[in-house]
Design a protein that fits this description.
mainly alpha; elongated; single chain
């Protein structure tokens, strides 16, 4: 299990994405509870980092 910590840098983000990829390459139903929990937490952290560091290009509705 990865040492879960806040994502503060691009390197932290990259490492988190690698771990998410490792966890999702197997069958999610076959993941032990602790790894499924890790995947869920890492996904939330990655989304929070993305929302704070990458602009969502909203389409203009006009």
């Amino acid at each position: 299990m990865m040492n879960i910590k806040p994502i503060r840098t691009k390197d932290d983000y990259k490492a988190t994405m690698v771990r998410i990829s490792e966890l999702t390459n197997s069958d999610p139903d076959a993941l032990p509870d602790n790894e499924f929990d890790e995947l869920e937490i890492l996904t939330v952290l990655a989304e929070a980092y993305e929302n704070g560091h990458y602009k969502n290009e909203a389409t203009d509705s006009v």
